[in-house]
Design a protein that fits this description.
Radius of gyration: 20 Å
Oligomer: single chain
Strand content: 15-25%
Bound molecules: 5'-O-[(R)-(carboxyoxy)(hydroxy)phosphoryl]adenosine, zinc ion
Largest sheet: 5 strands, mixed
Distance between the termini: 22 Å
Number of strands: 10
Low-confidence stretches: none
Order of helices and strands: EEEHHEHEHEEEHHHHEHEH
Strand order of the largest sheet: 3-2-1-4-5
Mean pLDDT: 96
Shape: globular
Helix content: 40-55%
C-alpha cells in the first residue's frame, strides 16, 4: 500500500510517499526557519501562508521522486492534530481535496503518533508494545504504545515543552531560532555541574513533566548576570541546562520502565536529536536491560514520511477519515 502524506502542523511543509509503513519512496521537506528566524519564533499566520505556497509543488516533487503519478497512490494521509490551527488547516484542506478529487481513502494522523512512527522507518524490526517518549518543540508526551493504534498517555508536560525551553533559553543567550541544536553543541564543551538549575517534579504525577520553572531559572540567571555586568560562560549555562533536562527525562523514564514493564523504549521528536539526551537515555535503558530505539537525526524533526508510516497502520485498523475532517490544534492526553 503506497500512501501519500502531507505534514503542515508547524513550520515545515512536507510531502512523502511510503510503502507499507516502512519503505520511504520519497520525502520532500521545506523548512520555514529562515522566514521565522527574524521574529525569534514561529509566526502562525506567516506559517499558514508559507504552507499554502509550498504544498502543491512539494507534493508534485514527492510524486516525481517516487516516479509515481497521483492515480497510482493508494491513499492520502494528513496530520490533523496537534499543531497550529491555521497551519494544520492548510494540509487538512489540501489532503481532503486530493482525496475527494481522486476518490481515494483519506487517513487522519496524529502528529505525535507520527513522530513515534519515524522509528518504524528506521528500525524494520520495531513493533509495539513499547514505551514512547516524544520530545519536540511543541510536545512532551510519555506514552504506553500497546499496539500500532492503541496509545495511552501516562505523562505529559504541565506547561512548556522541552523544545520550547531549549528555544527560549537559546534566544535569551542570543542564539537564533530554533536554538536546540546550537545549545547541544555549546553544552558539549561546557561544565554540566557549573550551575545548579532546578529539576521540577510534579506532585503525585511521577510521569508528568514541567519545564517552565527551569526555563525561568535559566533566564533569571542570565538577566541577573547581565544587570550586574558579570561575564557568563555560555557553554556552562548550556551544559547545566541540558543536564537538568536530561535528569528529568531520565527520572520519568526510569519510573515508567519500572512500573509498566514494557520491553522497549522509543524516543522521538525534534529534541530527541539532542546528543546529551540520547546518551543519558541510552545509559538508562542499558542499566534497566530494555531495548532502545531512536530515529536517525534526519527523522527526528517534522517530516511527512513519518505521517505516511503511521497512516499505514491506521488504514490497517480501518481508521479512515472523511470530508468532514477538521484540524484539532490541542494536544491532550488522548493521542488519537
Ligand atoms: O519535532 P519538531 O521538528 O517540531 C515539533 O513538532 O515541535 O521539533 C523542533 C524542536 C525545536 O524546539 C528545536 O530547537 C529542537 O526540536 N531541537 C533540538 C535539537 N535539534 C532540534 N533540541 C535540543 N537539541 C537538539 N540537538
Ligand atoms: Zn513535530
Amino acid at each position: 500500500m503506497k500512501i501519500l502524506a502531507i505534514e503542515s502542523s508547524c513550520d515545515e511543509t512536507s510531502a512523502a510517499i511510503v510503502e507499507d509503513g516502512r519503505r520511504t519512496l520519497s520525502c520532500k521537506i521545506l523548512s520555514q526557519i529562515d522566514i521565522h528566524k527574524r521574529f525569534g519564533g514561529v509566526v502562525p499566520e506567516i506559517a499558514s501562508r508559507a504552507h499554502i505556497e509550498a504544498v502543491v509543488s512539494l507534493t508534485e516533487g514527492a510524486l516525481a521522486d517516487a516516479e509515481m503519478t497521483l492515480p497510482e497512490v493508494d491513499a492520502i494521509a494528513v496530520t490533523y492534530s496537534p499543531g497550529l490551527v491555521g497551519a494544520l488547516l492548510v494540509g487538512v484542506n489540501f489532503a481532503k481535496s486530493l482525496a475527494y478529487a481522486t476518490h481515494k481513502p483519506l487517513i487522519a494522523v496524529n502528529h505525535i503518533r507520527g513522530h513515534v512512527a519515524a522509528n518504524y522507518l528506521a528500525h524494520p524490526e520495531l513493533k509495539p508494545p513499547f514505551l514512547a517518549l516524544v520530545i519536540s518543540g511543541g510536545h512532551t508526551s510519555l506514552m504506553k504504545v500497546n499496539s500500532f493504534t492503541d496509545y495511552e498517555t501516562v505523562g505529559i508536560t504541565r506547561d512548556d515543552a522541552a523544545g520550547e525551553a531549549f528555544d527560549k533559553v537559546a534566544r535569551v543567550m542570543g542564539i537564533g531560532y530554533p536554538g536546540g541544536a546550537e545549545m547541544d553543541a555549546l553544552a558539549n564543551i561546557g561544565n554540566s555541574k557549573a550551575i545548579a538549575f532546578p529539576r521540577a517534579i510534579v506532585k503525585d504525577a511521577p510521569y508528568d513533566f514541567s519545564y517552565s520553572g527551569l526555563k525561568t531559572a535559566v533566564v533569571n540567571y542570565l538577566h541577573n548576570a547581565e544587570q550586574k555586568g558579570e561575564e557568563i560562560c555560555r557553554e556552562d549555562v548550556a551544559a547545566s541546562f541540558s543536564a537538568a533536562v536530561c535528569d528529568t527525562v531520565q527520572n520519568r523514564l526510569s519510573h515508567a520502565i519500572d512500573d509498566f514493564k514494557m520491553p522497549a523504549v522509543v524516543l522521538a521528536g525534534g529534541v530527541s536529536a539532542n546528543s546529551h539526551i540520547r546518551k543519558c537515555v541510552e545509559e538508562l535503558c542499558k542499566s534497566k536491560g530494555v531495548s532502545l530505539y531512536m530515529p536517525p537525526l534526519s527523522l527526528c524533526g517534522d517530516n511527512a514520511a513519518m505521517i505516511a508510516s503511521q497512516a499505514y497502520y491506521e488504514a490497517k485498523a480501518e481508521n479512515f477519515a472523511n470530508i468532514t475532517l477538521n484540524a484539532v490544534p490541542v494536544n491532550n492526553k488522548f493521542v488519537k
